[in-house]
Amino acid sequence: ADSTPVVPTTAGTDATPTRAEPVSAEPTSTPAAPARVTSKPDSTTIAPLPPLPVGSPRALAAQPRTTPRPSIPEPAPIPRYVVREGFVERTVSPQAPTDYELRGGFYREGLINYLLLEPQKDLRKFSGKRVMASGFEYSDSRWPTPVLKIQDIQLMP
Description:
Blueprint: E1 6-7, E2 18-19, H1 57-62, E3 80-90, E4 100-104, E5 110-116, E6 130-138, E7 147-155
Parallel strand pairs: 5-7
Antiparallel strand pairs: 1-2, 3-4, 3-6, 4-5, 6-7
């Protein structure tokens, strides 16, 4: 008088009945992992990019910087001695580096240099006249047009 139920077998198999196991809440073994399915890559699949070459600019930019690059100070531009010819005019801009400028052409259309003469009032007598000015040309950080520090100025006919 066994209390375990007997499970009948299906036809065409072993004729001996099997005993059913009692059902427990915990699984006795872990389920098998699903089989990995491999398929052909889709036409929309993008292959990973190869690593960048070691010395390429993009690879260097992608690397974190641990030490800052040393800044090399640019040398101050060396003033050069020049001779310019044009018309002396008053500057229009209140932010201009000097009060007078040298303009070129017959119609005074192009700005050549800003003129710097230590006593600025001496340039007033040349205003509106054609001159030949010589001296050292400097660049001012505020303006792209250079400043001409006049050493000699002559009226032109």
